[in-house]
Amino acid sequence: MKSVKAFAPATVANVSCGFDILGFAIDAMGDYVEVFRKEEPGLKVISIEDDGGKLPWEVEKNTCAVAIQAMLDDYGQEIGMDIALKKGLPLGSGMGSSAASAVAALVAANRLLGDPYERKDLLPFAIVAEKAACGAGHADNVAPSLLGGFVLIRDYHPLDVIKLHVPDSLYCTLLHPHFQLNTSDSRSVLRDAIPLKHSTIQSGNVAGFVSGLYQEDYELISRSMRDVIAEPYRAVLIPGFYEVREALKAAGALGMGISGSGPTLFALSKGAEKSKEIAKAAEEIYQNIGLGVDVYYSAINTRGAYVLEENK
Ligand code: HSE
Questions:
Q1: Nearest ligand 1 atom, CA 136
Q2: Rounded CA gap, 7 and 235, in Å?
Q3: GHMP kinase C-terminal domain spans which residues (predicted)?
Q4: Domain tally for the chain?
Q5: To test the ligand 1 pocket, which listed residue (15, 186, 228) has its Cβ within 8 A of the most ligand atoms?
Q6: Whose CA is closest to atom 6 on ligand 1?
Q7: Model confidence over 104-124: pLDDT tens digits?
Q8: What is d(CA 71, CA 106) in angstroms, rounded to the nearest whole number?
Q9: Which structural domain, as residue segments, surrounds residue 114?
Q10: CA-proximal residue: ligand 1, atom 4 (nearest)
């Protein structure tokens, strides 16, 4: 194999009630990585497109290179690869931008080697890259980007990742306001400890949400979309948060929360039509607030990352 190009989808982490343990992938957009085999050992980033010149090219810092290096360290052979990244996702958006890059790089590099790793076995390497990118090795973006659908990270030590059922009619609307919020900054406002009563509320909601997915009970999904751990501290970083939520719920959203660490907001809805109506309501409310926003609506991506092209 000479080169392989892969795509990895955007993701919504936390899904309100599942801080660091729940995420899902969306169809609407993602990142592209092409990996080329080269004679001499070692990794090199040869191009980065559409990042506004902001991403690092050094292999110790670039999320694609860090992920592939973690895989090669485990693989145990001196292999040479050139890496070309094309961003489809805005940086610092809360749509799993760094995760999509790392996952696309791993899927492409794994294929270049002849797929020695099962899909789920790439996850620890993606987590290494996520830690390098934002200081925390959370898996709730990389796991759904890699595996598709809704994913629960039941435990991190050892890693125990479970793909969940996706109701057919569940759709998502994403609102990306025009400013950047880095995950490390958005994590720094969180508390280290939470009151017992908040732990009880959060556990009830995450269990309710997962049950809602399996029972395709949209009302239960809606009731369970509540976050008392991260959202109260992060909402203040996102202008118009509560106003937007009220408007989207009035437009029929099952719930609205912060996508990952923000500033993108996500809403879930029953049916594609409803997700479009919510998108329209979002555009109107942001116009009233006076903030620029990009709005997307999408089915849930159940496939995860995939290989787009192979050159033998
Ligand atoms: N669970 C992570 C956080 C996701 O909320 O910080 C970051 O996208």
A1: 6
A2: 31
A3: 210-286
A4: 2
A5: 186
A6: 261
A7: 999 999 999 999 999 999 999
A8: 8
A9: 3-165+301-311
A10: 260
